[in-house]
C-alpha cells in the first residue's frame, strides 16, 4: 500500500483542511520534516504502529500533539520514556504501546498522572521480549480510574500487590493477562474483586489452579474467559464457570480436563 508513498506526499496530505485522523502504520518513509508538519495538526487519531524507522525525536513530536484521543505506537522500536513523558493530551483515551522494549515504570508513572482520560491501554509484549516494567509500573496503572480495557500480555509485573492497585480501576471491563508468569491464585483473588469485569484472558498462566478460577467464577459480570494452556486446571474449574452466563470461553491445552467438560459446557446455553 505504501510502496510509492513518499515523505513529500505526506507533507501534501498535511495540508488537507480539517484532517483529523491518519493511519500510517508500517510506513517506513516518514521524515523529520513530515513529522514536524504532522505535529502542527489538530489530529485526534494517529496510528504509526510498526513505523520502525521513526526516530525518537520524531516520535516525541507526534506524542506531544495535545488534541489526540487515540495514539498507536505499537512496535515503534525507538519509543522510550522520553517519548511518553511528553504525552500529555488531556483527552487521550486509547494508547497502544505493545512490543516496546525500552519503556519503564517511569512511563507508566507519567501516564497515570497526565493522561487521566485513558480508557484503553495496551502495554503487551511478546514471549521472550525484554520487559523493563516491574510490579511498581503495573501498580501505577491504578491511577487511571476511567480505564476499561487493559492489555498486559506477558508482562511479569502483574503480581498480587500490583493487582491490588488495579482495583482502583473500577471501570475495568477487559483484562488480558495472557502469559503473565507471576499470575497465580493470589493474583486471581484480587482480580475477582474488580466490580465490572466481563472479559478475562489468562492463557498460559500456568500457576493458576481450580482454587483461583473458582474465585473468578464468582464475578457476576463475567462473560468471557480464556484459560488455554493452563495445565493445572481440572473439571472443577469448568463446572464453576458453567454456572455463569458465559458467552465465550477457551480451555484448549488444559490437559487435565476430561470428557465431562464437554458435557458441562453443553449445558451453557449462552456460549457462542
Index terms:
single chain; 272 residues; alpha/beta; 29% helix; 11% strand; elongated
How would you explain this protein's 3D organization?
The protein is an alpha/beta fold and 272 residues long. Helix content is 29%, strand content 11%. The protein has helices at 7-13, 32-39, 56-63, 81-84, 105-114, 135-140, 160-166, 185-191, 210-216, 235-242, 260-265; strands at 21-23, 45-47, 70-72, 94-96, 120-122, 149-151, 174-176, 199-201, 224-226, 248-250. The chain has a ten-stranded parallel beta sheet with strand order 1-2-3-4-5-6-7-8-9-10, with no helix packed on it. Helix 8 links the parallel strand 7 and strand 8. Helix 7 runs parallel beside helix 8. The two termini are 36 Å apart. 38% of the residues are buried. The model has no long low-confidence stretch (mean pLDDT 93).
Return residue spans where pLDDT drops below 50 for at least 5 consecutive residues: none
First and last CA, distance: 36 Å
Strand arrangement across the biggest beta sheet: 1-2-3-4-5-6-7-8-9-10
Total beta strand runs: 10
Beta-strand residue fraction: 5-15%
Share of helical residues: 25-40%
Order of helices and strands: HEHEHEHEHEHEHEHEHEHEH
Q: What gyration radius follows from the Cα positions, in whole Å? A: 21 Å
- Rough shape? elongated
Structural class: alpha/beta
Q: Outline the biggest β-sheet.
A: 10 strands, parallel
Mean pLDDT metric: 93
- What's the number of helices? 11
Quick synopsis:
The chain is α/β, with parallel strands linked by helices and 272 residues long. It is built from 11 helices and 10 strands. 29% of the residues lie in helices and 11% in strands.
Amino acid at each position: 500500500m505504501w510502496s510509492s508513498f513518499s515523505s513529500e506526499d505526506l507533507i501534501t496530505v498535511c495540508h488537507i483542511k480539517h484532517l483529523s485522523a491518519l493511519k500510517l502504520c508500517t510506513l517506513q518513509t516518514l521524515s523529520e520534516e513530515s513529522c514536524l508538519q504532522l505535529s502542527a495538526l489538530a489530529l485526534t487519531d494517529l496510528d504509526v504502529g510498526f513505523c520502525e524507522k521513526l526516530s525518537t525525536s520524531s516520535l516525541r513530536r507526534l506524542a506531544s500533539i495535545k488534541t489526540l484521543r487515540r495514539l498507536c505506537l505499537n512496535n515503534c522500536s525507538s519509543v522510550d520514556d522520553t517519548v511518553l513523558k511528553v504525552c500529555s493530551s488531556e483527552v487521550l483515551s486509547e494508547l497502544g504501546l505493545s512490543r516496546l522494549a525500552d519503556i519503564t515504570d517511569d512511563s507508566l508513572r507519567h501516564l497515570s498522572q497526565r493522561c487521566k482520560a485513558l480508557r484503553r491501554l495496551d502495554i503487551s509484549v511478546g514471549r521472550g521480549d525484554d520487559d523493563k516494567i516491574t510490579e511498581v509500573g503495573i501498580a501505577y496503572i491504578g491511577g487511571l480510574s476511567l480505564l476499561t480495557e487493559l492489555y498486559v500480555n506477558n508482562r511479569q509485573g502483574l503480581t498480587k500487590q500490583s493487582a491490588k492497585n488495579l482495583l482502583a480501576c473500577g471501570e475495568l471491563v477487559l483484562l488480558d493477562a495472557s502469559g503473565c508468569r507471576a499470575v497465580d491464585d493470589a493474583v486471581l483473588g484480587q482480580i475477582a474483586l474488580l466490580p465490572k469485569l466481563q472479559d478475562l484472558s489468562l492463557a498460559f498462566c500456568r500457576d493458576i489452579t481450580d482454587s483461583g478460577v473458582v474465585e473468578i467464577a464468582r464475578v457476576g459480570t463475567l462473560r468471557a474467559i480464556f484459560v488455554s494452556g493452563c495445565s493445572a486446571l481440572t473439571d472443577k474449574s469448568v463446572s464453576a464457570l458453567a454456572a455463569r452466563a458465559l458467552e465465550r470461553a477457551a480451555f484448549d491445552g488444559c490437559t487435565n480436563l476430561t470428557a465431562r467438560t464437554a458435557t458441562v459446557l453443553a449445558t451453557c446455553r449462552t456460549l457462542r
